[in-house]
């Protein structure tokens, strides 16, 4: 069959509002194309370990939706068990054959069954059967394999959405969970409300105008209306958010008031483009810069830009009405992406959780969810928004997963979790002022990773003891030229003041690689190994010098700055960095500034540091281990490539042993160690790092209370015993399991 036909079948199932109808079309087309007597699809149900006949042409229609086989039972079960095709010319004589009289199976001899797999997991089995004895050809197998891959995604949607259950009037609810990114902790049980965007950011059909003056006016009006809308959202938010958090709502305003977007659009309009086309094109240009960034935090800011894009577009479209919607109690908002203004529309008492197909824990919606203390699961990708408005759901913000139309047992379990959770929250609040000390007296410092002014307030509220990593990149990205010394000074000063007297570790600019600045582009074949981090700022020392001047001046009279160089790979780089720092210090003193030399550290992110650490320790006051990059470079696994994501594992024995070696060396020399990569935020990672003897962990503010609870409830002796055992392990799975057991025993 032509590729086109295969794609057509895939599309039919994807587009259909009635998934069962679509699946029926698939089996019917296959039966026709291959000229077989029977084509059937069985869906795998993990909890029951069974295969459920959801579509068939050839078997009796009355068994569709009724016939269920145990996995492992019969030839269909064998396919599911082995995850391999079974191709036989005489099914009844196959040892695994099982007779199901209700389906009329005995009539068929030739049998070809193959697994339908979605993201590595069994989703179902596709079967063709024929009365006569014949072996299906390799071409048949190749065709069906292609088709099974093609229909897996849409079939998965249909299954997860509960649409198949509904279509077959099957009252049984689901216990399957759709996985996403755990972006805000907590659990929720509620009703889904889907938020849709009516606008598109595709280039409009008509792009030129004869009347630039009118278009320019239209654009100005749209911008004004958007500003008004954003202000209204901020006002709504002010009713339930503390004042400090409202800065979150300034991001859009800032994007809109910065010179870039509006000015570039106006310029395009003047050159003859319609307002909509000019806006889309300008937006795309800016989006491309953000989307290409390696730093996940900065890349996520593309969301804000897209959200703003849709808002302005809505006002550019004639007759854009106001957005109104009804929100059920325990409302679970679901969308591709959710903007902050949408979140403020839901009465706060009703908002129970947030689900997004895009985004990550760095999205502003996730940030707000953490502030509000409700769960958020982002990056779900496959949430079938068309089919789930009004459906009931449970959300697990700890594991990052959602179950649509949950079974009574799942719902009951989540209600219980919700009660436990409320009790735990009360306990955690009481820990805020308490230190992070293990029961046997090991004192750990819990710090926060930040990169925006808006990240500062949660530091205190979370009960953290400072900022362990301030990523200075953001102020550099939001602009179209390097920020001046004065601008940088103001930003850093605000941060140091807000957090002081607690310490703030500010990392010098870590750009380059996949994280280019719009106004400083590098064309490189292999950017991960190219000009990045301190390598780049040493190559352009004026950038480093300006930043160091701003940082040292910002610290005047405060004294809580700690300075850190990123991506150091050699002693020569470190020495050059220190050389610049000394020179800046002396020049500033000559100019009359009362600057002090701050404690100096380096990020340990490159494997070369494993061998150069002793010499580095002669030169620095502390080290920060960046486990994200260290893992990436040790294991040669791109930290942002989902295709190799399962290989990116900080509990890999190679990573653990490297970390232990680094921490042992630093401890022998009494140089403090902070860990500020994602590993510190993972409870299993945190336990092993504490066992090694790190001094502080720097994590997302929302995680601080729970890590504190962890530290205060497991003795370091137990953690060390665990470490001694797992450091010998060869298998990351074994390490994780042993660590998890300890956590479970600790409650
Ligand atoms: C790291 O690499 O672990 C780290 C903290 O730095 P970043 O994530 O900003 O690269
Ligand atoms: Mg890094």
Molecular structure report:
This protein is of the alpha/beta class and 747 residues long. Helices cover 44% and strands 16% of the residues. It is built from 26 helices and 23 strands. Strand 15 and strand 16 form a beta hairpin. Helix 6 (212-238) crosses helix 10 (296-316) and helix 8 crosses helix 9. The model has no long low-confidence stretch (mean pLDDT 87). Magnesium ion binds next to helix 21.
- What is the CA–CA distance across the termini? 57 Å
Strand order of the largest sheet: 7-14-13-9-10-11-12-8
Question: What class, by secondary structure content?
Answer: alpha/beta
Q: What's the number of helices?
A: 26
Outline the low-pLDDT stretches. Answer: none
Tell me the β content.
15-25%
Q: Helical amount among residues, as a percent range? A: 40-55%
Radius of gyration: 29 Å
Mind describing the biggest β-sheet?
8 strands, mixed
- Could you tell me the mean pLDDT? 87
Q: What compounds sit in this structure?
A: phosphoenolpyruvate, magnesium ion
Count of DSSP E strands? Answer: 23
Shape: globular
């Amino acid at each position: 069959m032509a590729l086109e036909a295969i794609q057509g079948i895939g599309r039919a199932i994807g587009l259909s509002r009635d998934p069962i109808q679509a699946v029926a079309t698939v089996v019917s087309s296959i039966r026709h194309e291959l000229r077989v007597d029977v084509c059937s699809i069985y869906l795998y149900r993990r909890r029951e370990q069974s295969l459920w006949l959801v579509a068939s042409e050839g078997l009796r229609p009355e068994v569709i939706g009724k016939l269920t086989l145990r996995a492992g039972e019969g030839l269909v079960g064998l396919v599911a068990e082995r995850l391999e095709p079974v191709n036989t010319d005489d099914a009844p004589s196959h040892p695994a054959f099982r007779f199901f009289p209700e389906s009329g199976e005995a009539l068929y001899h030739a049998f070809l069954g193959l697994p339908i797999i979605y993201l590595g997991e069994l989703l179902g089995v596709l079967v063709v059967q024929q009365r006569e004895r014949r072996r299906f050809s390799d071409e048949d197998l190749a065709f069906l394999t292609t088709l099974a891959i093609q229909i897996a995604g849409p079939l998965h949607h249909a299954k997860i959405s509960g649409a198949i259950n509904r279509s077959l009037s099957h009252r049984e609810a689901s216990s399957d969970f759709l996985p996403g990114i755990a972006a805000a902790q907590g659990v929720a049980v509620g009703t889904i409300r889907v938020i849709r965007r009516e606008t598109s950011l595709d280039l409009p059909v008509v792009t030129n105008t004869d009347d630039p003056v009118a278009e320019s006016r239209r654009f100005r009006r749209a911008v004004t209306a958007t500003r008004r809308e954003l202000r209204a959202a901020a006002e709504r938010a002010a009713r339930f958010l503390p004042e400090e958090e409202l800065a979150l709502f300034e991001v859009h305003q800032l994007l809109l008031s910065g010179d870039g977007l509006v000015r570039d659009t106006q310029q395009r309009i003047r050159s003859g483009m319609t307002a909509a086309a000019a806006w889309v094109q300008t937006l795309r240009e800016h989006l491309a810069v953000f989307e290409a960034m390696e730093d996940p935090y900065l890349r996520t800011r593309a969301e804000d830009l897209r959200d703003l894009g849709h808002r302005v577009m809505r006002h550019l479209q004639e007759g854009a009405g106001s957005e109104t919607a009804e929100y059920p109690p325990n409302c679970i908002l679901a969308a591709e992406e959710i903007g902050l203004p949408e979140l403020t529309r839901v009465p706060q008492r009703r908002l129970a959780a947030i689900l997004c197909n895009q985004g990550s824990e760095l999205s502003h919606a996730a940030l707000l969810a953490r502030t509000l203390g409700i769960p958020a699961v982002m990056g779900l990708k496959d949430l079938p928004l068309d089919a789930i408005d009004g459906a009931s759901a449970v959300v697990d913000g700890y594991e990052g997963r959602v179950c649509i139309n949950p079974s009574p047992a799942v719902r009951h379990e989540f209600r219980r979790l919700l009660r436990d959770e409320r009790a735990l929250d009360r306990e955690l609040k009481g820990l805020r002022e308490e230190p992070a000390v293990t029961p046997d007296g090991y004192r750990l410092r819990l710090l926060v990773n930040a990169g925006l002014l808006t990240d500062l307030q949660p530091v205190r509220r979370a009960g953290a003891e400072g900022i362990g990593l301030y990523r200075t990149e953001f102020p550099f990205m939001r602009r179209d030229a390097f920020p001046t010394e004065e601008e940088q000074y103001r930003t850093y000063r605000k941060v140091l003041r807000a957090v002081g007297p607690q310490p703030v570790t500010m990392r010098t600019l870590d750009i380059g690689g996949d994280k280019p600045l719009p106004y400083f582009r590098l064309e490189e074949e292999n950017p991960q190994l190219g000009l990045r981090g301190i390598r780049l700022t040493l190559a352009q020392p004026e950038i480093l010098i300006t930043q160091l001047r701003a940082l040292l001046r910002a610290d005047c009279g405060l004294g809580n700055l700690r300075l850190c160089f990123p991506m150091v790979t050699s002693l020569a780089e470190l020495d050059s960095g220190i050389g610049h720092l000394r020179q800046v210090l002396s020049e500033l003193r000559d100019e009359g500034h009362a600057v002090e030399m701050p404690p100096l550290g380096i990020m340990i992110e490159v494997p070369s540091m494993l061998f150069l650490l002793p010499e580095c320790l002669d030169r620095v006051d502390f080290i920060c281990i960046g486990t994200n990059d260290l893992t990436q470079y040790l294991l040669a696994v791109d930290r942002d490539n989902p295709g190799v994501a399962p290989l990116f594992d900080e509990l890999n024995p190679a990573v653990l042993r490297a970390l232990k070696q680094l921490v042992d060396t630093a401890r022998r020399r009494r140089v403090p160690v902070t860990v500020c990569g994602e590993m510190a935020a993972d409870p299993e990672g945190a336990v092993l790092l504490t066992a090694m003897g790190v001094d502080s962990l720097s994590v997302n503010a929302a995680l601080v209370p729970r890590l504190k609870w962890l530290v205060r409830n497991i003795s370091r002796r137990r953690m060390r015993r665990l470490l001694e055992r797992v450091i010998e392990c060869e298998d990351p799975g074994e390490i994780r399991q042993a660590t998890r057991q300890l956590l479970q025993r600790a409650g």
